[in-house]
Amino acid sequence: VQLVESGGGLVQPGGSLRLSCAASGFTFSAYGMNWYRQAPGKEREWVASISRAGNLRTYAESVKGRFTISRDNTKNTVYLQMNSLKSEDTAVYYCKFSDGPWGQGTQVTVSS
Questions:
Q1: Which residues in the chain belong to E strands, given as ranges?
Q2: Burial of 87 by CB count in 10 Å (0-12 exposed, 13-18 middle, 19+ buried)?
């Protein structure tokens, strides 16, 4: 089982990034998927979830209206589109399913 996050980087406030998480080693379409993040000096927090078929999505209040989670079950990939980024969105972002391992994460830095 492997989850590989990518797409992070340095972006100015108000900018956008699209994160990807490529999954392998399990039946991707059988699991809801989640994004989490961990900012420096803070505990890891949940960001967003998507159901197995992609028809149900939930978001943390802090990102609602700015972030969109999606998935492509033909590519075994889950995405996180992040718009109107703020400095407080700076964190390492991780994807995960219920019993799965943590990946290495991808760093997102929002700074001018």
A1: 2-6, 9-11, 17-24, 33-38, 45-50, 57-59, 67-72, 77-82, 91-96, 106-110
A2: exposed
Quick one: DSSP state of residue 25? S
CA distance 12 to 33: 28
* pLDDT tens column, 60-81: 999 999 999 999 999 999 999 9
For CA atoms 110, 57, 20, 24, give the dihedral sign.
positive
∠ CA 88-34-25, rounded to 5° = 130
Q: How confident is the model at residue 54 (pLDDT cuts 50, 70, 90)?
A: very high
Residues 6+ apart with CB under 8 A from 112: 12, 13
> Are the C-beta atoms of 21 and 104 separated by less than 8 Å?
no
Amino acid at 71: R
Can you tell me the distance from the alpha carbon of 100 to that of 18, in angstroms, rounded to the nearest whole number?
22
* β partners of residue 3: 23
